[in-house]
């Protein structure tokens, strides 16, 4: 029992550290994004999901410190937010590697998209740190499986706004699959279905890897 208690405390300390690293890196990354594309920064799913995740990481760090001092568990609603953030950034990473990289082979492809400027933080470091902290360090309290579909909410909201803005010609992209006037309606529907399905599969995997499927003793 003592070993478990010490292990829990170590996990909380490491969780605090990793979450604070994300919080520290996000101002650096978002400044780079703003310097590169200005106000268009806020049209990207990547930047919005990273800003959301940084805010959640700050909340988790504060709550983990409180849990460490009080001996109580991380509030379930806070872990639920971290789960959603982890799913958003995991989706970002997988989309970069398997969807966006093939569009930019002449610019360095996946290496360019994972290492250049703010993309080093937003496409690689932040997703990895948020995923690792959620899966390995924030395993309690467990989340019921009914939380899995909640991970689709940010993606659905962003997608709805982005598609409407592209249809109204207020935005151009910023992703190739949002260019509604350069593809057929069927292609747009298929892209939406594939991304949401991938998001759901990703969420289920993150939920499972986080130990949430374990039976209570």
Automatic annotation (TrEMBL):
Keyword annotations of the record: Membrane, Transmembrane, Transmembrane helix
Taxonomy, superkingdom: Bacteria
Identification of the protein by name: Pr6Pr family membrane protein
Listed transmembrane segments: 50-69, 81-104, 119-137, 149-168, 188-209
């Amino acid at each position: 029992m003592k070993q478990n208690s010490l292990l829990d405390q170590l996990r909380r300390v490491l969780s605090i550290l990793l979450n604070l690293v994300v919080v520290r890196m996000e101002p650096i990354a978002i400044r780079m994004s703003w310097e590169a594309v200005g106000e268009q920064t806020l049209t990207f799913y990547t930047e919005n999901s990273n800003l959301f995740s940084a805010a959640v990481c700050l909340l988790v760090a504060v709550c983990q410190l409180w849990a460490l001092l009080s001996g109580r568990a991380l509030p379930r609603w806070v872990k639920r937010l971290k789960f959603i953030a982890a799913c958003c950034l995991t989706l970002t990473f997988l989309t970069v590697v398997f969807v966006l990289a093939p569009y930019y082979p002449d610019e360095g492809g996946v290496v360019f998209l994972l290492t250049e400027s703010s993309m080093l933080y937003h496409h690689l470091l932040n997703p990895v740190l948020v995923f690792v902290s959620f899966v390995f360090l924030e395993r309690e309290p467990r989340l019921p499986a009914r939380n899995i579909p909640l991970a689709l909410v940010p993606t659905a909201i962003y997608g709805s706004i982005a598609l409407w803005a592209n249809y109204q010609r207020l935005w151009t992209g910023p992703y190739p699959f949002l260019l509604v006037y350069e593809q057929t309606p069927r292609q747009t529907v298929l892209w939406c279905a594939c991304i949401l399905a991938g998001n759901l599969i990703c969420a289920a995997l993150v939920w499972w890897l986080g130990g949430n499927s374990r039976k209570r003793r």
